[in-house]
Specification:
The structure is a homodimer.
Chain A (H helix, E strand, L loop, with lengths): L5 H10 L2 H10 L2 H9 L3 H10 L2 H9 L3 H10 L2 H10 L2 H10 L2 H11 L6 H4 L6 E3 L4 H11 L8 E5 L5 E6 H5 L7 H4 L7 E2 L4 H10 L4 E5 L5 E6 H19 L14 H28 L1 H6 L7 H24 L8 H31 L2 H31 L9 H23 L4
Parallel strand pairs in A: 1-2, 4-5
Antiparallel strand pairs in A: 2-3, 5-6
Helix pairs in contact in A: 2-4, 4-6, 7-9, 14-15, 16-21, 18-20, 18-21, 19-20, 20-21
């Protein structure tokens, strides 16, 4: 960011899309970041802020003079201001709220009371509503007039006198409607909506399922509170996917980005499952200790501990991934879960037989001990079938208990499978070598 | 599906959303599925088919009489027909194509040549384009006229005489434009577009990034070929997420759903990584064999093999999940990957020190052998730091080599970490117990 080039950069910024500028800001260092940010006019700056994560928003807004802050806040969309305020400490919230114009302040205050993860927490109040007895030409005028501020004008929500949601109309339908109708007669009375307290993920999935551009949010009396647009739904689904992948790997999910922040914090998010599994695998170790005399007699049994543990864990993790994703996308339902379990058992058995046979041959060739080969192969076969079942059934049980199945992380399943596998292995070995 | 209730069910179907009917069809058994499907009129049936997976589409269409097939195909959207045809064997494709009306046939034939995973493979040709010198009132008329068939009328693409994409206009802007303008003067000249050969995931990410409702698809000469709408982008992102989660668990991703299909096929998709890792963990086993004399002297070393292997694998998988997801969402870039590696190393070190210390104490308490406690704890600390680095760096290398980082599946990382961990553990033990 050289001094002489400021004019050039200013022009470039005019031309760039806010999403690209946001990406650029994340990539460059702190000093230049703020300098660059200040080169934009308020409108553009507000648009760029809309694209950024709350932590960076706070950082950039803090760097502004008080007057600039107020100007930019006024231009930001209500739902983004809410996101921002939810990240700030109490004292700063008060200060920022004072800068908002009166009408926005009212909106924001109402929204701030809603839970962050609910549909209400991500909805916007910038939508177009039309009273049910409005004639078509007047409705078109209302769209022209109020549409400028709205996040979408393509869905028009029809309300009665008490602001109850009674219908919906697409702009497409409105402009091709006969001019002598009133909206009540042409609207769709069946509206897919979500409750303000519903989970934001449910709202996003509804938008996905019904291929909507926006979904209305209502309270318990069916009063229209706001809307959630498809771009916000995309953000929610992306965040939830990241959370699911992290949870599957045994990382505690938090509202915000995991990758940034201090290593100490990062470690904190990873330790809970690590420690649970550490103790779990000490139990697996004590299984070995329980069969110490078997191991002392046939020390070669130890050489196959890694391959049995690892393959068992891998099969369990595969089944877990199938189950968790199947439950998340709604492919596994209350109606068909039994057939998935059976199929998984069969797949586990096939995988077990193949891996078991291969391992028997290798063990025989490597150690030249037929008994050992049979024990190792048989243990593999049984262990893999059980691993597939454990990986499929545990997330299903969690789901039935209304617990997010993704918390049954890979590490947890692996630990359960480890204990099972070693018990099978050493029990079989003890029997086979007549050591009982 | 009782005979007497057909009329009732028919009425219910009229009232239900196609997405809900599709869900219902997936859940009920085969016989009733087809019976239910036939109760709908062609338009509704086509809408429901649009929501279903290709396998089920084929199944349902096959159950129809020839005349019905043609009627329904005509009503389905072009991009869905393409999806369907791409699943069918050559001979059936020919038969179905003959049923299409001439104009649709042309469109479909052109699209069929495009790669399935490209932007061209998921685009639709049902869009509204407007020649650049059209006056505003006439443009509004064109939207009214051609809009009925289009997938979206909210973005209007402006083309020149040779169908080059020269601009875009939202319906919102068009209806609020002055009536004496021509579209060329009010359109945006900067249009975000994707190339017909681009990956469909890139197209979906562009829609997500710029919060679009649709993105135009162009050829190398910038000629407009079609559009991809946000609802199709959502489908792509959901499928890609499923693929990523499956790949991470070491399941070979294929175009279609993993959960359905025969158990033999399911086993096939899971075996490649399982077998690679099986051989890898035999190497881990031969590390133990290499230190056989150490193990024979201190048999208690075996009790800690599970906890070291499992915790190492867990840390490696956590780092892998962070890396793969960070790369997929674009959070990790060429500019900042070094700082992520450093942060990961620090996080691994912290986790390693904490787990190592805990394990030292437990080993001491359990086995009452201070040397053993120190060896186990030190091995844990070193192994976890390395595991974090391996899990972060390997996917980054793959990404740099333009290989999807998600193929560095959890099982693969775990195997590499297993071998490393056991080598560290037994080397340390051999030194500590002065057994060299």
């Amino acid at each position: 960011l050289k001094r002489g080039k400021v004019a050039e950069i200013k022009e470039l910024l005019l031309y760039l899309h806010p999403a690209d500028i946001a990406e650029l800001l994340v990539d460059i260092q702190n000093g230049s970041q703020k300098a660059l940010f200040k080169l934009m006019d308020y409108e553009k700056a507000a648009e760029v802020l809309d694209e950024l994560e709350p932590e960076i928003q706070i950082d950039l807004i803090d760097s502004l003079a008080e007057k600039e802050k107020a100007e930019i806040l006024e231009k930001m969309s209500v739902d983004e201001i809410i996101d921002l305020l939810q990240e700030l400490p109490e004292s700063k919230v008060e200060k920022l709220l004072k800068k908002l114009p009166m009408d926005e302040l009212e909106k924001v205050k109402g929204l701030l009371l809603l839970s962050r993860d609910s549909a209400g927490g991500i909805m916007t109040t910038d939508y177009v509503y039309i009273p049910e007895d409005t004639p078509v030409p007047e409705a078109i005028n209302m769209v022209r007039k109020f549409g400028r501020e709205a996040e979408t004008i393509y869905y028009l929500y029809i309300v009665d006198r008490d602001h109850h949601l009674v219908g919906v109309l697409s702009l497409r339908e409105l402009i091709s409607a006969r001019r002598d109708m009133i909206v009540k007669d042409i609207m769709h009375k069946k509206v897919v909506s979500v409750h303000v307290d519903d989970d934001q993920e449910d709202a996003a999935r509804a938008i996905e399922k019904y291929s909507l551009l926006a979904i209305p949010v209502v309270d318990s009396d069916q009063r229209l509170m706001g809307i959630i647009t498809v771009d916000d739904a995309l953000d929610v689904l992306r965040e939830e996917t990241t959370e699911d992948i992290h949870k599957l790997a045994g990382i505690t999910a938090e509202e915000d980005i995991i990758l940034t922040g201090s290593p100490l914090k990062a470690a904190q998010k990873r330790l809970p499952w690590l420690l649970i599994c550490l103790f779990g695998d000490l139990i697996a170790g004590s299984v070995i200790k329980g069969f110490e005399s078997t191991l002392e007699t046939v020390i070669a049994l130890a050489f196959f501990i890694p391959v049995l543990m690892a393959t068992g864990g891998n099969v369990g993790t595969q089944s877990l991934a199938l189950a968790v994703r199947g439950l998340a996308t709604g492919e596994i339902t209350a109606g068909n879960f039994v057939s998935y379990i059976f199929q998984e058992a069969k797949a586990g058995l096939i995988v077990g037989i193949i891996c078991g046979a291969i391992l028997t041959i290798i063990a025989l060739a490597w150690q030249g001990n037929p008994n050992l080969g049979l024990v190792v192969g048989a243990a593999m076969g049984v262990a893999l079938t059980l691993a597939a079942l454990i990986g499929m059934i545990i997330p299903m049980i969690l789901n039935a208990l209304k617990i997010d199945p993704a918390v049954a992380s890979g590490p947890f399943i692996t630990t359960v499978v480890d204990i099972t596998t070693l018990m099978i292995y050493f029990s079989l070995a003890t029997c086979f070598f007549n050591l009982v």
